[in-house]
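Input record (one chain):
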Amino acid sequence: MKLIYGSQAMKYWFPDSREPNDIDIINSGIKKQSTKEKQYYWTEAFDYIVANNQDDGFVDPDFLYTIKVSHAAWDINWEKTMMDIEFLKSKGCKLDMKFYKLLYNDWEKLHGKKKVKMQVQNEDFFKGNIKRRYDHEWLHEQFMFDERPMNERIREDLDSPLCSENLWNSLEYPEQIRTALEEIFVLQAERYVFIDKPLPYKIGRIKTLKQMITSSTSGWFNLFLIEHFNSLRIFSQDYFKYRVEAIKENK
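The corresponding structure, as predicted from the sequence alone:
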């Protein structure tokens, strides 16, 4: 069975999508076979599409979206992938979680698992190669939205950076956004603000999100960052600037 996916399928379903450069084809039984015009792919997770796709020639929109989201966790054509995710999301496409997990498992085998070790104590976790001007937990207190940093609400043990999915799921959506933003603010401040040659805030925000998505997170939090990238990219820019200036004035 052959099914077209990628940008050609996006163009088929949504004529206002970007112009395709080639044709990506799911071809049962062929793992990868490419020409200049046509790219053939196969991975075990595509069995799910073969069994569930409704259209005879093109991969259904929700499956297109799910494929893009699963790819975003790795730095492979990342900017284009994120652009397509936002476009498909604007068209109402939804994630198929079962398919996403199958794909993610395949991509881990192909591209490698994330080297994220959270089941350690704070002092071991923060021994990394990042040169920090300020204490990481102290920075969380400087950027917090409430009386205490939001990440404390999703950590069963405050002496460890490990976060609980159950505690995360107990948060309301605005609380989840604030929790993600606090972590983004702290990492952006460490990597792109309180350094010898700081970056413009908007550029630093995007670089921080990319680094978090492709390198330093996995699992449920990684998926949240991908699916809410556009909001997290723009929310609370003025608040971040205000808090940075306050830190500079008081130190």
